[in-house]
């Protein structure tokens, strides 16, 4: 998304050539393949770790840090190393996103029209906010010191990075679509006003 916005704002005349269907397929395939590979590596490692402290995790899914808490003393080092490598890759992606947005914002600030600047910022800031929330909470959840860990904090952090971004993303990107806005307005109007009319008619 950052690369898409970079090309749309900084290289608008070349956008159609750079962001063609083939480029989009390649980027989507790379994202899915890297996510699948990471998941397979973590799953294989965690399944091979012997558990010495029971098999109940204080979480709503089998999160890796919670499984490591149940592992034997030295058996978790391989998975911990894999977590560090994954964190470094995530940080590299985040740096790439930040550098892209630095160039985007420098280009936006040079737009003479205030309306054009507002439109560009409204297109970029929601994506940057969601990515920042995901990366910061995931980093803190996986790399925080054990001394400040608690079940309530762990669950809150997990919800922030695993539930909130996927839930908010469709809303952020679809609410700029006029047809979807109109459809949502009609649904809300029918829900709050249409149902009241039906109830009133039934009572009469």
TrEMBL record:
Signal peptide stretch: none
Keywords from the UniProt entry: Cell membrane, G-protein coupled receptor, Membrane, Olfaction, Receptor, Sensory transduction, Transducer, Transmembrane, Transmembrane helix
Residues annotated as transmembrane: 80-102, 123-143, 155-175
Recorded superkingdom: Eukaryota
Domain G-protein coupled receptors family 1 profile: 1-173
Membrane topology: Multi-pass membrane protein
Primary residence: membrane
Full protein name: Olfactory receptor 14J1-like
Native source organism of the sequence: Apteryx mantelli
């Amino acid at each position: 998304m950052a690369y898409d916005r970079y090309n749309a704002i900084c290289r608008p005349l070349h956008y159609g050539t750079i962001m063609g269907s083939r480029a989009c397929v390649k980027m989507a395939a790379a994202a899915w393949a890297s996510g699948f590979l990471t998941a397979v590596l973590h799953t294989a490692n965690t399944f091979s770790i012997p558990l010495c402290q029971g098999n109940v995790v204080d979480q709503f899914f089998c999160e890796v840090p919670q499984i490591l808490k149940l592992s034997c003393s030295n058996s978790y080092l391989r998975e911990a190393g894999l977590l560090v490598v994954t964190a470094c890759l995530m940080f590299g992606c985040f740096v790439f996103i930040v550098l892209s947005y630095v160039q985007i914002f420098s280009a936006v600030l040079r737009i003479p029209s205030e309306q054009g600047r507002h439109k560009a910022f409204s297109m970029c800031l929601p994506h940057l906010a969601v990515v920042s929330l995901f990366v910061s909470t995931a980093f803190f959840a996986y790399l925080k010191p054990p001394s400040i860990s608690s079940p309530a904090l762990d669950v809150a952090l997990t919800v922030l990075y695993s539930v909130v971004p996927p839930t908010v993303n469709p809303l952020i990107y679809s609410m700029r679509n006029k047809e979807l806005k109109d459809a949502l307005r009609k649904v809300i109007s029918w829900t709050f006003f249409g149902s009241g009319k039906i109830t009133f008619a039934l009572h009469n």
